[in-house]
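Sorry, any thoughts here?
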Amino acid sequence: MDKSKLVRRSEWEWEIPRAGRMEVPGLLFASESLIDEVDDKVREQLSNVASLPGIVEAAFAMPDAHWGYGFPIGGVAAFDPNQGGVISAGGVGFDISCGVRTLLTPLRRDEVEKIRDSLADALFYHIPAGMGSTSRLSLDTRAMTAMLKGGARWAVSQGYGGAGDLECIENGGGCGDAEPDEVSKQARRRQTEEMGTLGSGNHYLEVQAVTEIFDPVIAAAYGLVLDGVVVSIHCGSRGLGHQVATEFSRRMILEAPQYGIQVTDRELASVPAHSPPGKAYYGAMRAAANCALANRQILSHFVREVFKSVIGDNELPLLYDVSHNLCSPEDHEVGDVKKRLYVHRKGATRALEPGHPDLPARYRPVGQPVLVGGTMGTTSYILAGTEESGRRAFNSACHGAGRSQSRSQALKQYRGEDVVENLRRRNITVKTRSFRGVAEEAPAAYKDVSEVVRATAGAGLARLVARLEPMICVKG
C-alpha cells in the first residue's frame, strides 16, 4: 500500500484521513511489513465503507486484511440504525457465518503419530467435503425451517452433540432473531442435502497439535496443554448462505437509491437497517447464520463418531465456536453513550473482553477464545479477548492469515500434487478431493499468519494464548 496516503498513529495503527464523502476515517491495524503487502484496493474499499450512512467511529481493517467483495476481507464497521445506519450484504459476505470451531481431544501428539494414517483415512471418508458435496442428511420443508430457526440448538435436539456444546458457541448456538420466512425457496433447495458438509475453497478440517503456550493461565482455562491435540473445523452456511447474499445484494443495489444512498461500488450496496429490505436481509442473514451453526454442530458429531471408531473415545468437548462473517446487534459505548449498533465483521472475529456477560461462565475470567486459522502448511493460533480489545474496533480481531495472492495467481504458480507432496515431507497429511483446490490454497499464497497475530496482539486487539501446528488436513 502507498504509505504516503496514510498517517501512522502508532507502531500498529495506520489511518486513512477523512476525504471526499468519508463520514469517518479508516483505520488499519498492521505491522510495517504487513502494511507493505496490503493492496491499495483495500484502502479504496475501506474509504468507501467509511462513506456509508450512519457509520460510527471508523472503518477498520484487521492485520489480515485483503481485497474483498465491497468490504475488504478483514473489515469491521458499526452503524447506528437510529441515525440512518445501514446494513450491507457485502459487509457480511457470501459465506454467511463462516467460522471456526475447535474441539479438544484426549490425545497427545505422539499418540496421533501412531494412528495418523487410519485417522486421516477415516476423517476423509466420513466428512463430506468439496464443491457440491452432500451428506447423509436430507431436510424436508419442516426440518429446514426448524434448522433455520434453531441453529446448533436444533442440531443438538436431533441428536448431534449435547447441550453442553451450546454454552461454548457464539449466541448460545442460535440466533433467536432469525426469520426463516425471508429465506427463498432457491436458497433452501441448495441446502437440502448440504448439512454436515465442509464445502470447498479455504474450508478445512484439521487435526492440530499444541506446540507452544504463550499464556499458561488462559490456556489452562481453555483446556489447552502442550503437545495436546485438537480438531478445528472451518466452514459456513454453504449454498444457502451464498444464495441469501446473492439475492439481497441484487435487491439492495436496486432499492438503495430510493433511500437516498449513493452507491460508489455496486458490491457495497446497502440500505437503512430499519427499512423493509434491511429488516428482511437481517432476518434472512441471521437464519443463514443458524444454518452455519447447525452445519458445524453436525460436522462435530461426525468427527466424534470417527474418533469413537478409531480410538474408542468420542469425548471431544467443544472449546469454542465463533463466526467471522456476520452482522450482529451489539451494545457499545460511543463517546460516553451506550448505543445499540449493527456491527459488521467480514473476515474478522469477535473478541469479547474478560467479564463480558455474553461469555460462558468458564471463560468470563479470562476472555473469549479467538480462533485464528492459518494454512495447511503453517500454523493456527488461539488468542483471547482482553480488556483493551473491549475498547478497540468494537471487540474485533483477525480471523486468519489473509491472502497475499488471488486464487487465479496461485493456480498459475502451484500444482496441487506438489503442494501435497511437499507437506507430506514435512509430516503433514493432506486428504483432498481436488488438487486444483489445494493449489488455490497453497500456503505460499497467504500472508505470514505469525506476523498477523503478532500485529493483532501488538495492537491490543487480542492476547496470544497458544500456537497450533497441523498434523492432518481434510480439504474439499
The chain has a mean pLDDT of 95. Residues 3-82+97-404+446-475 form a domain with the tRNA-splicing ligase RtcB fold (CATH 3.90.1860.10).
